[in-house]
Design brief:
The complex is a heterodimer.
Chain A: H1 2-6, H2 13-36, H3 43-63, H4 71-101, E1 116-120, E2 123-127, H5 144-155, H6 160-166, H7 172-186
Antiparallel strand pairs in A: 1-2
Helix pairs in contact in A: 2-3, 5-7
Chain B: H1 27-62, H2 64-74, H3 77-102, H4 106-137, H5 158-191, H6 201-226
The chains are: A mainly alpha, B mainly alpha.
């Protein structure tokens, strides 16, 4: 048993205190550089991420004992980091180079999507125009959900399933029981 | 100790007579395997959070101005910075708890675990009390729940930033909450005298989990609050 005790590792205190102090100092450095040292372009972001990576490496090496452990644990971490970098870097390459091939730019985002409700053959239908979802007038003080509720109350019947229920089912009462509540909810919005 | 008896782990001083599970050659093998398993789990954790970081990268590249303005408008770096320091200190105290086990000092384990949990709860209270609740009141919510009209940019892109903020920090907060319970369990096991120089595997793996929570916050803090 005693030769077993000999190679039982006790975490050294010095490196742990060193790690704690450097983490605190690097946190302060991150805040100071980000808030008071404006760098051109994405300089601040890159600097902050480099400092964060240094901090993460310190935590992994000292606090998480990678430095004192078997190498297999480090290999697991490195494999995982390889996956993370591959995932994010290739996505960024994709987004960053699309403009080189065709003039694809980020469009203005319309609250709730760019599609519109339009009158066609006397019926309200969705004109998607290459977008997803109906478009609502998300005015100040409203969320898209508020706007959707209001639009729903105004026309009364543009949710397709509600439309079908409206025909003659008595279960319709349950749907109507909802209506006052939703109207009440939409009321506080300034108009 | 003529025969391997698992019951000995429940006696008053179990770390003195700790017997590894019978399917391992020795206690070191058992410990190494448990640790490797924990590291594999942490690897998947990093991959899971990389989804949020990837979404952040995509939307930041598409709307760089919105990103900077929304970060300044919606988030207070002092709250994030305070929470960063709290988590860093808690990482140190849980390392001290493991040292306590290695040195066979029961109360050193207990007090350091308690300090870690106090830090964790401080993090959650600050996060929920000073960020989540005011944000919910102001309608600063992700996606379709976002209330328009008071954003800094005058555009409707703010809900993208807030979407990533909410999903990433809430997932991280959930990890902190789980950590509180696991560390609490460690405290109970400490008081039962179940940790000692030969048996602190559970404590060490809890520490590894807690450190990855810290590392993820180390990245989330500057990305969301600062730059």
């Amino acid at each position: 048993m005693s030769e077993h005790d000999n190679h039982h590792h006790v975490t050294p205190l010095g490196p742990m205190v060193f790690t704690l102090v450097s983490l605190v100092v690097l946190t302060v450095v991150t805040v100071l550089t980000a808030k008071f040292v404006p760098l051109p372009g994405s300089g601040n972001l890159i600097l902050a991420l480099v400092i964060a990576s240094i901090k993460g490496t310190f935590v992994a090496a000292f606090f998480m004992h990678l430095l004192y452990d078997k190498a297999v644990n480090t290999i697991v971490v490195m494999s995982s980091m390889f996956g993370v970098v591959l995932f994010i870097a290739l996505t960024m390459v994709d987004i960053g180079t699309r403009k080189l091939h065709e003039p694809l730019e980020a469009g203005e985002i319309v609250a709730g999507g760019g599609a519109q409700w339009v009158e066609r053959d006397g019926k309200q239908v969705v004109d998607y125009k290459g977008s997803y979802g109906p478009s609502y007038d998300a005015a100040p003080g409203k969320s898209v959900l508020d706007a959707a509720r209001e639009a729903s109350d105004a026309t009364g019947e543009h949710a397709p399933d509600a439309d079908e229920h409206n025909a003659e089912t008595p279960a319709n009462d349950a749907a109507h029981a909802n209506t006052p509540a939703t109207t009440e909810h939409a009321e506080p919005a300034p108009h | 100790m003529t025969s391997v008896s698992v019951e000995t782990t429940n006696t008053a001083e179990p770390h003195e007579t700790y017997v590894h599970q019978h399917h391992w050659r020795n206690a070191d093998d058992e410990k190494d395997a448990a640790k490797l398993g924990m590291w594999l789990f942490l690897g998947t954790e990093a991959l899971m959070f990389s989804g949020f970081f990837c979404a952040y990268a995509v939307f930041r590249m598409l709307y760089p101005d919105t990103w900077k303005q929304a970060s300044d408008y919606y988030l207070d770096w002092r709250i994030g910075g305070f929470n960063t320091l709290v988590l860093v200190i808690s990482s140190f105290t849980i390392v001290q708890a493991i040292r306590g086990a290695q040195l066979n000092k029961k109360m050193m384990i207990f007090w350091n675990l308690l300090a870690t949990n106090i830090c964790a709860l401080t993090f959650l209270v600050v996060k929920i009390g000073w960020e989540y609740i005011p944000k919910i009141r102001a309608g600063e919510l992700p996606g379709a729940f976002f209330t328009y009209g008071h954003g800094p940019t005058g555009t409707t892109h703010d809900h993208l930033f807030l979407g990533i903020y909410w999903v990433a920090t809430a997932t991280h907060g959930l990890h902190v909450l789980i950590g509180v319970f696991v560390i609490g369990w460690c405290m109970i096991r400490t008081m039962k005298g179940q940790f000692g120089p030969k048996n602190y595997m559970f404590l060490e793996n809890t520490g590894l989990y807690w450190h990855i929570v810290d590392v993820i916050w180390i990245f989330l803090f500057p990305m969301l609050y600062l730059v």
